[in-house]
Amino acid sequence: MQNYLEILHFECYNYSIMSLFPRNISPILIKKLEQERIITVTGARQTGKTTLCDSIVPQFSHLPHTYISFDDPDERLRFSQAPVMLLEKISTPLVILDEVQKAPFIFDPLKHVVDNVARKKQIRPPVFLVTGSSQLRLMPKIKETLAGRVSLLEVWPFSLSEMNGTGGIPVSLTELWEKPSRETMENFKEYSLAVTPDAKRKKVSTRDEHQKWGGYPSVILRKEETEKISWLKDYRKTYTERDVSDAGDIRNIDDFALAQKILASRAAQILSYSEVARELGISLNTVKRYVTLLGITFQTVTVHPYHGNIGKRYVKSPKLFFSDVGLLKATLGNPALESGNIYENWVFTELMKWKQLQPIEPELFFYRTASGTEIDFILSAGDKLLPIEVKSSRRADYSDGKSIENFMNEEKNAPAGIVIYRGDEIVQIRKNIWAIPDWLIFNPGDR
Predict the structure, then answer these.
(1) 131 in helix, strand or coil?
(2) Are 387 and 355 in contact (CB under 8 A)?
């Protein structure tokens, strides 16, 4: 049988990263495999999509499976000549189609096969597990041909809770989201006091490592700083020269790389396309195209402002965040760099990884009025709101809760708020507003 396990090979480490760092998204993928016909697993290159899929397959050992990688040019050629016939010939109930962004022609035949088999009610349709790393190639085809037939999952770099090696959804943040109350905070504070000194030291040390290097699997497994730096530089070079060129019509790669660096220097800030265009000496439309390319290749995410009170004037422009803080620092050329914006970007990535694990995934916004009142993040779902401020220092006080308190006074669906900071303990700074250490809120409930 073809061995398709994506193992991160380097001389001293000859084992699968999944055995060390279980993925929080695994149970969701397992459930979808039991319920859906087509599941598409997307995400940036080297986040562990293939490894995740491989770790799931043994749990379906009763289902023989077929693995096809479109990274192989021979496979691409073979399937391009007779895709429907080759897909119909597959007899296993589980089919993995890897790197499918390199074979966009496969989506129409895939739709045909799934629909055709489904019409033959005596035959159970196979389950197709599809992976890819470019939204440009994937999403239009999915929307055109597989609408209503496909379930999507995005694999991010490792979260802080995953990097601890225990896995598990951060219990504290989930409980706060489900029941933002004094009772929840008191229970959480009681738990925090029970964390042993050794466990706390480990959590803080892991947090520091994660905030410095990010969560790419290959970076985590490398022990030497020089190796980590080298990998991140190589990743950025490969991304710029290969992935971006594959994804879109870039006439000047050097301009794109410089734009990426300028955007990195403005991470977690209001995105002004015109300012970036002036700084680069290129057109506004070119900057917008560059930002779009960064987004569809999973390198950046734009977050839009929350608009609540109709009578208020709000900022309309989005904020830009990078999907991994290690890659953000590598783009800036300094892995040791620390700033309030970089810290806010790190909190953003942890919130994004957390929210996709929720039964009903909340939306993430920021809040800023034309007069300058600002809250870093707003979690929103239905009639529920949770304002979140971010502070990179190790102390939080009464003044840090002012914007949240004003927001809570205006929004009846925001009964509480939190400040995420780098401190040591949970502190109530205003009525129903608490400052919570980052190492505590983004970790699972182990002690």
Answers:
(1) strand
(2) no
